[in-house]
Design brief:
Oligomer: single chain
Number of helices: 10
Strand content: 25-35%
Strand order of the largest sheet: 18-17-21-15-14-13-1-16-20-19
Shape: globular
CATH class of the largest domain: Alpha Beta
Number of domains: 2
Amino acid sequence: MNDVVSFARSAGIAAILTCILTSQAVADDNLVFDFGSPQKFSGMGVQLWPATSHLAERDALMRDLHCKFARVGFTSKVTDEQIKNHMSVAEISSAINRVVDADETTVYSQLHDEINQLHLKLDLVFWEVPQIWCITSGDSEFSHARINPDHIQDYANWIVAHLLYAKRLRLLPGTVELISEPDSAAGTQFSPEQYDALVFAARATLDRNGLASVGIDGPGVASASTVEAYTQVLERTGHISLLTQLSWHDRDTVRRPEPAGFTGVPVGLLAKAHQLPIAITEFTSESPQWERPPYDSGPRNRGDNNAADSPDFAVSVLAEAIKLVGDGANSLSYWQAEDPAWTQDAFGLLNEEGQRKPAAAALQMFSEFIPPKCDVASQKQVTFTFGLASACVRSERGLVLATVNLSQESRKIEARILNAESPAKVALGRRFDSHGATPQVVPASTITLDGQNISFDLPARTAVILELR
């Protein structure tokens, strides 16, 4: 009797699950976009390394991406042996000047010309704290560094001395990230309280040294899931008012499946963020799927048959960009423009030979439809299915509806646009899918447009962007 009951129960559960899965595979995705209180999207940028062997190719890429800013790591040739405790800004500046050479000056001069010719806003980031001011744990191969709290002001002086050096090179930034990923063992760790002390010390030191125009992006943490721990302390001390932009990094990982967007960021945080613009200062995809067949390697490691060279990776990158815009990001910076010779990762939009990867074509399609200074509608997904990214924006050219299906099943999109003039036609449509390296035309006949309502089929692993007028 128990076996019969167990079998019947298992069969019933299986039947229910089959119905659910079948209904999800054919169900509509009902989306509502409301322009009643739109956000502003200020534009996209890319992470640059100062030195490049492919300047012309990199410049052409940034033009085609309509980049509005560049994010650059900044440093000098000062070594840890030339640094001591409690150095003033002037003393660190003197140490920098003593080691400046022609090669470094040439690289930074070329960077200045590139930024100036492309009319880009420059944002700088500092990667790590000199070891002398850190507490290091672990063995030599797997060690990680934490800031010694007794030397937070020393590091603030170090930042300001380098920014004064950048000013002399005509590379004074609009904003700076004081430390990259203070929550991560990849660089120098700062607790939320230590990061708060750094913001206070850096702001005061910047102002004392004639750099009041340089804003601070922060906290620049590695994940949206840790940003609240840092902003809570900044809120409590009032030092959040010292930030120019609220920043963090976004990488799709096993803990934050694609498209992650603002997943993990509390709604309350976004509501009380002091109206600070939200800058995603690094985004890309590190999903574990890229390390599995049919690929031999993923974006973390270069090699033949690399996932980062595939249109499928490009679809994921495009989905993340659209999801971030739809969730409320005011600016995005892709990691990174190119694969430099001195690293082994493959996240770049240009490979080591300066050739464009499919992700470059996907982001170019994004930038051609979603321009800087556009309005972004708030949105609600009435029926939720995992793996969908969407955004609706309004510019001088009209409305743009962008959607990406990252699932393995075709979906039916039913979208409604509120508090905007109803479009009369589909003026332009493009699709990018996992089977081709360039965008394709979407025939207007495949889109049903009825006043505020738009419907169309969205195939698996495909992005569709529509311009409506």
